Amino acid sequence: MNRFYKKYIVPPDTRVSLAKYDPDDTLDFKDKEAGLELLAANNRRIARLQNDLYSEGKQSLLIVLQALDAGGKDGTINNVFAAMNPQGCRVQSFKTPTRIEQSHDFLWRVHAVAPQKGEIVIFNRSYYEAVLVERVHKFATPAELDRRYLEINRFEELLAGSGTKIVKFYLHIDKDEQLRRFVRRLKRPEKHWKISSNDYPERQFWDQYIEAFEIALSRCSTKAAPWFVVPANHKWFRNLVVSQILLQTLESMNIELPAPSVDLQETRRLAAIELSRQRHEKKRLKLKARG
């Protein structure tokens, strides 16, 4: 188990207090460049393992990203998952439930977009919104919330039992950093699309959101689907932590490449014949051109 995994995992049956997690933490990395260098190396290894996972076609990986607004979900996706082959990797965003989705249970829309065998899927927000936003704004009763934590655990156990590895990341920023990011968005036209009319009004519920996350992390970090609290005030370190944990997770899956579906000895023989034929053809054409 690498030190990132061990330090930031939420052990099962732990009562979480986010005040004990420093969002400015960078472990012993004093040099950002060293962190970026390790991130690049991790991403190359992750890309190779993703290709192996896709080729194996027997297991899958679900990654859940949750954070308060401006916590860095999009940035994490861009910096950690960009090297993956899109053929076997998909990002799934969850917006406000539609009228049809609201007429079903809160997990109804989730199961259909869970990863298939060989696939990695990143949930940009997730079914956890049903115990976060709905808790903060009292859209659900205490009894409904209690039931949802249990249903989430059972749902994740179902996925895990079907061959899906699950890792969940809470990107931990503080209130001052969130405001700095909101202000920076105003100064950068390419970021204006991210600005929401709810950005500043929702800040008054900061403490309630922190409490909601603490409860979700405490009740839903399990052996089958662990939560990790990722220090996210420093974007480069956030990306490094996620990449380290993702790399260890993929390595732990013991991915096995499938046996070739053809006779390799016969295929090598045919390849040698074709290469020889090609060399002779090029030689013939060259002599012909000389006249």
UniProtKB/TrEMBL annotation:
<dbReference type="InterPro" id="IPR022488">
    <property type="entry name" value="PPK2-related"/>
</dbReference>
<dbReference type="Pfam" id="PF03976">
    <property type="entry name" value="PPK2"/>
</dbReference>
<keyword id="KW-0418">Kinase</keyword>
<feature type="domain" description="Polyphosphate kinase-2-related">
    <location>
        <begin position="31"/>
        <end position="256"/>
    </location>
</feature>
<dbReference type="GO" id="GO:0006797">
    <property type="term" value="P:polyphosphate metabolic process"/>
</dbReference>
<keyword id="KW-0808">Transferase</keyword>
<dbReference type="InterPro" id="IPR027417">
    <property type="entry name" value="P-loop_NTPase"/>
</dbReference>
<protein>
    <submittedName>
        <fullName>Polyphosphate kinase 2 family protein</fullName>
    </submittedName>
</protein>
<dbReference type="GO" id="GO:0008976">
    <property type="term" value="F:polyphosphate kinase activity"/>
</dbReference>
<dbReference type="InterPro" id="IPR022300">
    <property type="entry name" value="PPK2-rel_1"/>
</dbReference>
<dbReference type="InterPro" id="IPR016898">
    <property type="entry name" value="Polyphosphate_phosphotransfera"/>
</dbReference>
<comment type="similarity">
    <text>Belongs to the polyphosphate kinase 2 (PPK2) family. Class I subfamily.</text>
</comment>
